[in-house]
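User: Can you predict the 3D structure for this chain?
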Amino acid sequence: MRSCRAAEQRGISRFGEVSDPGLGLEPARKYRRGNYRAEPRIRKANPALHSHLGVNFLPAHNDNILFFEKANAARDNVVLVAINLDPFNEQGADVELPWQTLNNWGVQEWDALAVEDQMTGERFEWRGKRQHIRLDPNTRPFAIWRIAPTWELPRAQTTL
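Assistant: Here is the predicted structure, written as structure tokens:
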């Protein structure tokens, strides 16, 4: 109990929330708070997120980056999540894509992999087993991507 009071006097609540905006955590807190609205949309669009099953932790060559795959049983919906565990500094890592999933899809090392950023809607392609990512706790403390073979992910609608 004594440690809780001491922490509260330093501006930290019992739940670890910092009440002093001078510590530089306010931008990250606003970022997280604003994205709670995106969570139901992302969950609804991805059957892999409808269950607690299908989690596979993947290599990220930086201890400050947590990287994992979430897939449904049929493995036709695969979501990759990267989280920066350092609340103060931008972190980068070489992450390894789930080679087992890629092999099941028949995707070779040189084939393109369709990627859709679930937070921004941006679509792009990755090639190769390793990708380099950067996460800044003030602007983008985490990333959620849906991956699929390029022939599976629906193309973005274009207006002429």
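The mean pLDDT is 80. The helical segments are 2-9, 26-35, 38-45, 99-105.
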